[in-house]
Predict the 3D structure of the following.
Amino acid sequence: MLISYIKLHHVALFALFFALGGTAFAAGNALLPGNSVGTKQVINGSLQTNDLSKTARTALKGNRTGCRRHAHEEQRCDLGD
């Protein structure tokens, strides 16, 4: 029954999906500026290192002078005190 409905109304269904897709695309472009993600959209653990730009990754690392890290140890930094 579903197959016969699709066969009879395939042009109308295509037009419906095309219109809904165009509306969603237009709303997404008009309401959100490019590359905009806020804290409300990010869930803890959802962002990976590859999702961030190189500038953001280096900003998160900070100054690592005198720091060393091993797999079995925590990070240790000698600040030269």
